[in-house]
Structure formats: structure tokens, C-alpha cells
Amino acid sequence: MKEIDPTPKTKEEIDHLTLKYRRGHETVDSIYNYYLQQHNKRFPPKPKKFIKPENVDEFIKTLGYRSPNKVKALIKNEFPDTEQSVLNNLNISSIPRFPIKENIKNYSLHTVSPPNTYIMDLIFENHK
User: Fold this and answer.
1) Contact status, residue 71 vs residue 57, Cβ threshold 8 Å
2) pTM value surpassing 0.85
3) Which residues are CB-contacts of 121 (< 8 A; sequence separation ≥ 6)?
4) Phi, psi of 27 (to 5 degrees)
């Protein structure tokens, strides 16, 4: 079986392929726009890649971990040239923290919904 190429065809290729089958009122632009819509349904665009922060301080702000050992291990993995003195002087308390215990206590975060319905989690964060 031949593998399908996920790259979309050009407008010229679509023009050439549909030349025989076009009705008088259909333009190449409308056919190409329809083709792109159908193509994107079948082959959704790939998600954008994560852009790595440029320095250790910016990287720390993106972390969800608060354990000093996990933070140091992630920094060593992403920034191998980081000196040991920088790792030893990390201020873990400056990492933004999500108040999960308060949210679990005050709000119902774990519920079950009926089939074919949607559930939304509202998350509140204290800015002190």
C-alpha cells in the first residue's frame, strides 16, 4: 500500500488535477480553499515546538517542580554547562507555585461527567 504524503499540494497542482471536473462557476481559489480545509482535517498541522528558555532563570520560571533535586536535575539536563555554584545557590522558593491543596479543599476538581458531555476545571491562584 502506498503511503499518503501529508504535505498539501500547491494551487497549480490542484488547478491541473481539477481542470476536467470543474463546473463553470467554481474558481481555482474556491476549490483550493476547500481542498486545504479537507486536507487540514485529515492531516492536522503539527503542534509548535517548545522554545527552550535562553537562561537558567527563565527556565526555572517554567518548571512545575518544587523539589530542589528535581529542579537541579532538570537544569543539568537542559543546561549542561551550568556551574555547580549556580546549582547550589538556587532559590527554590522563587519558583511560581500553584496552590493545589487549597484548590482541592475549596473546589471540586475531581468529578465524573456523563458520557458525551464536557467538564471544565476552574483553577484559582492567589497573587500575594
Assistant:
1) no
2) no
3) 109
4) -95, 160
